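User: I'll paste a sequence; please echo it back and then give the predicted structure.

Assistant: Echoing your sequence first, then the prediction.
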Amino acid sequence: MPDAWPDPVTVAALYERMAGGDRIAQSEFLAAVLDPLAHHLRAWRPDADEHLCITAAEDALLSLIRNPSSYDPAKRGLIGYLRMAAEGDFLNLLQKEGKHRRNRDPRESVELAAVGGNEGGGVLPDAFPSFDDPKFAAEIAGFTPPERAVFELMRGGEGGRPSLAAALGVGHLPPDEETREVKRVKDRIIKRLQRAGRKA
């Protein structure tokens, strides 16, 4: 089940590798925990916009990837920490969205990949391999043009839903479908890079 939490031991092991600078572990951690964390937010706030839940989950995870030392295992378990962080990011996003709702296009109401809640920034470039990294060259070369465009945006920190949707040519879809399509392509890119890293 995509919404089921992975084994806590597995999550802890991924965190330790990530904290040690393993870039493949960063992608694996994101892929393993993103869906369960977004599902937790949807259960926590059943009336919440799905975009907001996905964004807050990504915020919490990418913030931890950016600064692994922000987690203190002496205070709480890693999954509990992520839930708390995602809930806080969700409330921050909800407040921000309320302030700007009247002046914004509904299709651009939430970006999927802002880093770190209030810390600002785009998708963490270091979570993804360099184009000239020989371990990933063959995999990247095999990306379709839309996948390549999305990957370039992610590498450059331009991870918001509107920009990724435009690159995929799905900006005309209803917001829920647009979000699902963007997430599907991002997940596929991450998984392909995971496999390439393991083979290397």
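DSSP finds eight helices and no strands in the chain. Residues 104-127 have pLDDT under 50 and may be disordered.
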